Amino acid sequence: MAKGNKPGRRRFGNVRKLPSGRFQASYIGPDGQRRTAPETFERKSDAERWLTLTEAQIFNGDWTDPQRAKVKLGDYAAKWIEQRPGLRPRTVELYQWLLRKHIAPYLGGVELGKLSTSMIRGWRADLLAAGVSATMAAKAYRLLRAVLMTAVDEDKILTRNPCRVRGAGTEHAPERPVLTVAQVFELAERVGVRPVGNFRKLDSGEYRLRYRVKGGTMRRFPHTFVTRAEAERALWKLAEDGHADTVRDDRLRAFILLAAFASLRWGEITALRRCDIDTENRTVRVRAAFVERDNGQMILGPPKSRAGLRTVSIPAAIIPDLVAHLDKYTGKGGDALVFTGVKGGPMRRSGFNKVTRWTHVVRAMGVPGLHFHDLRHTGNTLAADMGVSLANLMARMGHDNERAALRYQHRSKSADRAIADGLDALVQVQQAKGGDDEDGAAGKLVPVA
């Protein structure tokens, strides 16, 4: 018999009538503390029904302490990010930004226990209406879903996750560009080309452009530019059209080739040491990665996943470029960084983009939306086109789950064509046997007695 109940009364909980005429329900929780319903009821039967549902939650192990559910989502999510194990620094910064920018302003002050699916559906709709991209909204939703899943599974604050909006966490990113082998080599050549010229800011605030023509003579461009960016674009256009002289620097040639043909991430290739390169056996050992935080701090740590620790074979065709780079630009010690910034430290994305004038280069190649990560994407696609197994593709990519590798295998038309060609060869062999086949003529059904 439940504590506090008299013979003939309810087996679980109590219902009492208040001076207002409404009914209040209360019960003794599993922790021995008396709890009251969060609201009063107009009818006694409604209060009794609430107690019956609460008793069922306790019996099924679904009961949670209502007081704990009063914690604000913003506070809980911030603590979740702080205490989540295994998050890389860049991931922590992304989560904190998503919480601060897209979650806390809308839902940060809501108690966990008051969150509902309809509330979260409305929050997502507000994000999209405010101009937040579908991709960014999906990232914010996945973070919120992960936070609340911990509140359900580990902390037992909620009985179910209110993030149940179908398709809200799915990103439909546009297809990324894939370079051909010839384009990879063209890019490796182009990132070392620099147009020769200079800019001067005038008292009017505009910019004057001077450029060097073939033969070494400097000339002034006939008109000025409102911004330096416009002047830079004009200089690059002059170089592309052959009107401005250029200089070449092969410092980043091997960097581009290795990123593409070894399928390396930015942090992995920038962390390579001389001792990681084996030009005789044509392998690259990946054992570390640099992470650049928003404040500019460079952190050296393990690769993105455990599978990221790997040794990757590289084509013989790029070995001469790699050897030339090691001889010319890499320190002699085994621990020397293979690729460095202008001042000899770890290469930074900002420095790389500035030195290569990446935006101008890829636009001139006809792939204006190309990102550096698309070099890895290109390498993965080329590997998938070889028809390699899923396990081998995962090992080369440094992935410990099949999802990403399957995406490349599904996308590989060349591998599919290789399968079709193989089947075609088998059919041709069978047809060539003709009537010599013991089971009957090719292409005919033989009756079975």
UniProtKB/TrEMBL annotation:
GO biological process entries: DNA integration; DNA recombination
Highest taxon in the source lineage: Bacteria
Residues annotated as domain Tyr recombinase: 220-421
Name of the protein: Phage integrase, N-terminal SAM-like domain
Biased composition (Basic residues): 1-14
Gene Ontology MF terms: DNA binding
Keyword Isomerase attributed: no
Naturally occurring in which organism (per UniProt): Thermomonospora echinospora
Region feature (Disordered): 1-41
PANTHER family membership: PHAGE INTEGRASE-RELATED, PROPHAGE INTEGRASE INTD-RELATED
Gene3D superfamilies reported in the protein's UniProt record: 1.10.150.130, Intergrase catalytic core (1.10.443.10)
InterPro entries documented for this protein: CB (IPR044068), DNA_brk_join_enz (IPR011010), Integrase-like_cat_sf (IPR013762), Integrase_catalytic (IPR002104), Integrase_recombinase_N (IPR010998), Integrase_SAM-like_N (IPR004107), Phage_L5_Integrase_N (IPR058717), Tyrosine_recombinase_XerCD (IPR050090)
Similarity comment: Belongs to the 'phage' integrase family.
Keywords: DNA integration, DNA recombination, DNA-binding
Domain (Core-binding (CB)) ranges: 71-152
Biased composition (Basic and acidic residues): 32-41
TM ranges: none
